[in-house]
Structures are given as C-alpha cells and as structure tokens.
What does this fold into?
Amino acid sequence: MKRRLIPALAIVAMVASTAACGGSSGSNGSAGGSGSGSTTLTYWASNQGSSIDVDKKVLGPELKKFEKQTGIKVNLQVIGWPDLLNKILAATSSGKGPDVLNIGNTWAPSLQATGAFLPFDSSALKAIGGKSKFVPASFATGGAAGKDPTSVPLYSLVYGLYYNKKMFADAGLKPPTTWEELQSDAKKLTDPSKGVYGMAMEGGSYTESVHFAFIFGQQQGADPFDSSGKADFTSPGMVAGVKQYVDLMSNKVVNPSSVQYKNGPEAPGDFAKGKAAMLMSQNNADNTLVADGMKTSDYGVVAIPAPSGKKDTASFVAGINMSIFKNTKNKDAALKFVKFMTSPAEQKILDVPFAALPVNAGATPNFTKNAAEAKTFQGILAQRAVPLPLVANESQFETNVGNAVNQLIAQAATGKAPTDSDIKAALQQAQDKMASAG
Amino acid sequence: MTSNSTLDRTDGRRGAARRGLPGHAKPGRARGTSHRLAPYLLIAPAIILELLIHIVPMVVGVWMSFVGLTQAYIANWSTAPWEGLSSYKLALDFSSPIGNSFLHSFEVTCLYTILVVGISWTLGMSAALVLHRNFRGRGLFRTLFLVPYAMPIYAGIMTWSFMLQRDNGLVNHVLKSLGLTNGDSFWLIGSNAFWSMVVVAVWRSWPFAFLMLLAGLQNIPDDVYDAASVDGAGIWKQIRHITLPALRPVNLVMVLMLFLWTFNDFNTPFVLFGAQPPKSADIISIHIYGASFVNWDFGFGSAMSVLLLVFLLVVTGIYLLVFNRRSRRA
It folds into this structure.
C-alpha cells in the first residue's frame, strides 16, 4: 500500500504545483541603488529606433554626458514593446523595478492607478523644469484628469498617411482628402498579380488595431467610454469606426498576409519596397523607411482623412512618457535625469534618431529634413489629435478591443467579410472581458 | 578461539554501552542522534526549495483567488479586498459571456490534450517497435527522432511559426509543390490555428513517448517473443499479448505525464500566437494568462487556476485508482 502511495503523492504534488503556477506572480527587474560613493540609476528605455542596439548607441553618449554633468551613473536597459508592459507590471507587483522608465503614454492612467509611480506634484514638476516647458496636449497624457500626473512626455508622435509619390503620380492620383477618396485610390493602386496593394497594414498588431478603432470611432462621433468612465464599445459609431478599418482588408486593398504582421518592420517595409502605395503610421516610421532604402523625398505625408461630413480627427496624441518608481531610493537623482532627458537641448538630439516631435512648447520639429512632412505632423498634433481615454482601465481597452479587431481582420483575410453584427458581437465580448476586471 | 575472542569484544562493547560506562556511552549517543537526523538533513534542502518554489506560490495563488487583486492593488497585495467566492461564481456561470468563454477554453483544451496525447503515444509506440529491432542505421534514426525533445522548446516552436507563415512559410510551399493546396492557406489564424498548435505539440511531445516506450521494450526478454513465435503468434498477436501488457507500468506513468504537460501547455500557443491566441486555440493556460496579465485581474485568473488544479487532481486521482486496481487484479 505504502509503495503505491508514495508515487501517487509525488504525482499529486506535481499536478498541484504545475496547475497553481498560474496564480503566482513573477518578479523582475532590479532596484537601482547607490554605488560606492556615487549614485547609479536604473533606466528602462522603450525601443524607439529600428533596433535595440540602435537605441543603445543613441542613448549611450547622452547618458555619459549626464554622468559627466551630475556624477550620476545610469544603467540602461532597452526593452522591446511586446515585453515592456508585462515587465512594468511584474516590477509593480514585486516592488523591484528600475528608478526611471519609459511608458507608452496611453498606459499612463492605468499605471497611475497601481499607485506604484511617483506623482509629479508641484515640487517634483519644479525640479524637472516646470509644467510650462511641455506642449500642453502631450502633457495632458501624463495621467487621469484632475490628478497629479505620474508621467511626463518624452517623445511625441502622431499618425499620418504616408503615400508613395511615384506610385500616385504614375496612376494620375493626388493624395486623398476624404476616406472615400482613399478607398477608391487604394483600389486603383492594388494589383495582386504583381503583389502590389493600395495600403500597408499591421493586421496582427493589437496596438495598431485599437488605435485605428479609436481614431475612426472618433471620426464617427463615438467615444469608447461614457462620461462616468464606463465602457461603451458597441455604440453604432464604434461599430462603424471598426468597420472602416476592417473594410480595408474586406475590400482586398491590403495584402491578406499582413494579417500576421505585428509590431515590427513588415508594414513599413512593404511600403518602402513599393509593395504598398499607402501606409498609416506614426511619424517614427521614418526610421524604418529610411533603413529600408527609401528617401524622405520619395514619400509625402497628409493627415488620415475622415469620411465626408464626419469629424476630421486624424490621430490620437501618441508618444512615450517618462515615469519614476515611487519606491526609488534615488528620487532626486531620478528627477534630475527626467529634467535632463526632457530638456530642449536633449530633445533636439534625441528627436532626430527616434523621429519624434518635440515635447517642449514652442520647439521646432527637427526629426526630418522634409519641411513639408514636419509641418504636416506638427499640424496634426496641434489641431487634429485627441488623447486616448484617460481612464484607469485604458490598457485593458487597448488589449481587448485591439485583439477583437485583430480577429475581425483575420476573418476578413480568410474571405468572410465581417458584418456590422459580427463587429458588434466582437466588441461586446471585449467589453464583457473588461467587466470581469471590474 | 579467534571467533570467540571477537564475539567477546563485541559483547563487551555492547555491554559497556548498555551500562552507560564513561568513554563509551557518549560517542554512541552522538552517533545515534546523527543517524536519526541524517535523513532529515539530507531531505531538508529539497523540502525548503519545494516549499519556496511550489507550495508557497500555490498557497498564495489560492489566497489570490478569494481577493479582488486588480491593478489598483498590485503594488500592495495585502490591501486587496476580500471577495470570497465571487471569482469562482463568475468562472462557473456558463450562461454569462465570461463563464462561457472559460467553458469554451476548457473544451478546446480537452480536445487538444486528447489529440496530442493520443497521436504522440501512437507515433512513439510505432517508432519504438520499429527501432527496437536490430537493423543497420538504427542509431541514426534513434538520434534523429530525439532531436525535437533535445531542442530548446522556444527555438523549436519559433521555427514552426516561421514555417507556418502564409507567404514564405515552408508548409505552404511544400503543400503547393505537392499540389495539395494553392499555397495561400493561413495556418496561424482562424480554425487552422488549432490544428497547427496540435501538430507542433505532437512534434514536441512524441519523442518523449518514444524514449520511454523504447526503454520499456528493452526490459522485455527476447525469449518470450521466441516462444510466442514457436507457438505461431504473429506480430500483431505478439504486440497485443506480450508487448502491451509488459509496457503497462511504463504507459501508466507516461500517459499521465503527457496528459498533465499537455493540459497545462503554455509555451506552444504563446510562442505561436502571442498573448491572445485565435479563439480556436484559446487553451486554458493562456486563457488564464489573458485574465491575469492582459486584463490585470489576478484574482479571477487565480480562481480559474484553482479550478484547473481541482480538475487535474480529480482526474489524476481517478486515473490512478482505476489503473492501480486493474494492475492489482492482473
């Protein structure tokens, strides 16, 4: 009996341990600490350039410069976008994270709600050079309205419609000014037999999908959250906005294979190689386009057009913010570092390799030598961009709605164009998932 | 005489120890204590590590399932509000969309496990039977078949994800070359995603079955087969009446291990599809991951983990009970 019991117990223990692992939480990251005599900060930078190595090469000399100026050493870790949110989450739950980190600015209210980040109250803001040094639209993304922000803008980005000048000229087309024109241009420019399509798309990227669901929903006059912060994803405007985006795939003006493209160089690569005539992307796509051999004079940029008679929202206020972990032992050094990174002098240097718009009020964009492109993006940020919802469960909105839209694009790519009721059902499911999280 | 002297000496030592004579009793007691402690000391590191790595996180996971641990409390877990059984009720209310998606995920996982374990066992058994016999090149095949098992798991699955790409994936290329498809099938989205996941999991799991069964086969004496041949038993009769009964103890453990690994499989869907797989491939481990790390509702994720734990314990208990009883009868 005993002989049988021991292996049985061993197996039971194995079952128990494997199954319950889902409930445990990992820890990650390392706390910044003081070195012998000198302070060392740990900094998690998001991947802004065409690769992590490029980011290290760009940031390395700047961090040395900061060390020379202040005596504070910065230990840099560049983290890819697919891993960043989970790493931050693990650091938040374990309390062991970096001193300073970059976050997607749309995550700011969600991360603020964790209470793990240092609020930039009046004294903290004073220490980094004051609120007035930032572009107001970008500064507003730092956290929920009415609360001290827990992040400040570092790089500003907005969406624009890139078009291939030669392909448009050859087809006798001008850049579209309405969504209907964009659709008809895309059809004319599509020739599947040559592997050429009107539009490039990152159909497997949940972030891209939710961004366009929001932008096109805004064009249709819909907000994903009501005034009390309750999710309202299934309104007719949201359904129409999602359909506007998914129809690009249903109408076969994008390469069906792009349903598998995720955050990466694939979609800009298709555009740069002449396999797609248009690309809807944030202004940092310039890096990938140039890396893929395109000259800035080969493409033009206009605002993403809205359907005739609808709101002309062309983007949301995208970008990267900087936060400080509340439990840092080096608060003063961290504030000095944030001040350094957001200073006009550093912004001027970093905006070029990272193709970002400046976050400093009154600064001139220098991320491109193409003056028309710079002017277009600056105009979109100033007049046609709105922030994503500043609610605590914004990041869940991004993942759930983004993934629902991805599934709809996949359905369209496999030949079954989603109907309004399909879209409404998918959005309802995303909303139900939000409800489970309270 | 010599032996008597030895006996006397031995008795003398025993006698001294019993009488508690000075110089004898102390070392004896120390030796006795250390003998008693030795097994505990030897097992202590394993117990401490088991507690730290498995038991404590498991208990914490169970506690988490009873509290509302969301993003608002992850920086300070202890302040999460007590919610009792509400997460369990939510998961088990199959008429609600959330409970329904949990049930769907459970059904997908059951089908996935049955297919992967069944196909892996069949392939492993077939290969073991073939490679058990002596022939030229047997060593090469044995090594080749074990490659998927020896390969780092992430590298293997990532290679599959490249092979399953639509435009430049090897799978579509081969299928088109053979004239079976137009070469434009999607393997990582829609309903095909499930079959891709099954194929990759079988590729990864069957060498384990092969290895275990091959080892089991080597313990069956050749004489038994020779005798069966003499009695006129063909290959199928030999497999049915000699091989399978002899492999019963190996199969009992191996099938259970494959079942547990496959039911809890996380790597295959995560590497193939990312954090949110297509609905057809939404197996339970990644469903729980989604609730915890996508929706930041660790309480609900933990409740589903505990339900999974209870299910696996019940299935394992029944399995062991049934098969051990049969073994006893046999």
Summary: The longest helix of chain A spans residues 394-413. The first strand of chain A starts at residue 40 and ends at 46. Chain A touches chain B through 58 residues (CB under 8 Å).
